[in-house]
């Protein structure tokens, strides 16, 4: 039970690609679960709201991730919640607001650009995000905010370089999906407080709105949209080909050729050679045959 004996409310926020309605073929889903308030259940053996919603959350995750003969629905990641793995699985709305106000970091503000209520009491989710909005979209970015952005970006780049896949990773490699998303999300955080139209979770919508408000030129919008769509299409085809959550271009010429065909390049006698295939899947803007 919640305030005044009313049933306590519960909401699931979709983050990342789920929140932005941009799921990949083989995406996991990032979730944040919240309950309205502290309290107790009204059964014969009352338990605290936190214990009840913790049990509920575990059952929801089990049902979504359980492997059956047909596979599982999604992999679930709950690490974006306040305090990550160390935090409560289902914090209250107020405890989450207090955490972000005092201890919230730049990368968490960036993550909340993508937040969207997806299950449970959706109005509770919208109310929470509305209350959190002044923290997400501040009137200005401090030096610490900008440094936080740069640090996270360098960390992602170094990871790709250490793995030796910087030139093959369409997500975190140089000029990849993550680079475009960082640019767009930085502009959203920089201008979102003064321009509410930029407060959208979808990347393509954000690019369009950034042009409308004058943050991007028409040429910049076109380049970003075309390259982002191209790279996401490669990402989808890779995951369909290998039935894995992968973002790496294959190394073998035969697999590169198959990828080029799946991207719509070549047909029958016009099938691309291995060298041509590698070129066209690595260069956004190439024309399909």
Automatic annotation (TrEMBL):
Listed GO CC annotations: cytosol
CDD domains reported in the protein's UniProt record: NT_GlnE_GlnD_like
UniProt-listed InterPro entries: GlnE, GlnE_rpt_dom, NT_sf, PII_UdlTrfase/GS_AdlTrfase
Keywords from the UniProt entry: ATP-binding, Magnesium, Multifunctional enzyme, Nucleotide-binding, Nucleotidyltransferase, Transferase
Claim: Nucleus is one of the keywords in the record: no
GO MF annotation list: [glutamate-ammonia-ligase] adenylyltransferase activity; ATP binding
Residue ranges annotated for the PII-uridylyltransferase/Glutamine-synthetase adenylyltransferase domain, each copy included: 152-270
Domain Glutamate-ammonia ligase adenylyltransferase repeated: 5-130
GO biological process: regulation of glutamine family amino acid metabolic process
Protein name (database record): Glutamate-ammonia ligase adenylyltransferase repeated domain-containing protein
Species whose genome carries this gene: marine sediment metagenome
């Amino acid at each position: 039970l919640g305030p005044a004996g009313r049933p306590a409310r519960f909401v699931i926020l979709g983050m990342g690609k789920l929140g932005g309605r941009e799921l990949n073929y083989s995406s996991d889903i990032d979730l944040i679960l919240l309950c309205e308030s502290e309290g107790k259940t009204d059964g014969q053996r009352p338990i605290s709201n936190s214990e009840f919603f913790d049990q509920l959350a575990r059952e929801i995750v089990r049902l979504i991730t359980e492997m059956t003969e047909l596979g599982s629905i999604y992999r679930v990641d709950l690490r974006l919640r306040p305090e990550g793995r160390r935090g409560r699985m289902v914090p209250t709305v107020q405890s989450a607001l207090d955490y972000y106000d005092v201890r919230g970091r730049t990368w968490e503000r960036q993550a909340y650009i993508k937040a969207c209520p997806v299950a449970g009491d959706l109005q509770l989710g919208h109310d929470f995000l509305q209350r959190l909005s002044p923290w997400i979209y501040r009137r200005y970015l401090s030096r610490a905010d900008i440094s936080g952005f740069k640090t996270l970006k360098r960390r992602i780049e170094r990871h790709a370089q250490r793995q030796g896949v910087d030139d093959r990773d369409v997500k975190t490699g140089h000029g990849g999906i993550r680079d475009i998303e960082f640019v767009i999300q930085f502009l959203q955080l920089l201008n979102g407080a003064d321009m509410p139209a930029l407060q959208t979770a979808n990347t393509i919508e954000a690019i369009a709105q950034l042009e409308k408000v004058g943050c991007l030129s028409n040429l910049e919008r076109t380049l970003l949209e075309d390259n982002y769509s191209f790279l996401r299409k490669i990402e989808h085809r890779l995951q369909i080909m290998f039935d894995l959550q992968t973002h790496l271009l294959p190394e073998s010429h035969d697999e590169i050729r198959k990828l080029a065909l799946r991207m719509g390049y070549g047909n029958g006698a016009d099938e691309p050679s291995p060298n041509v295939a590698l070129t066209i899947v690595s260069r956004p803007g190439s024309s399909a045959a």
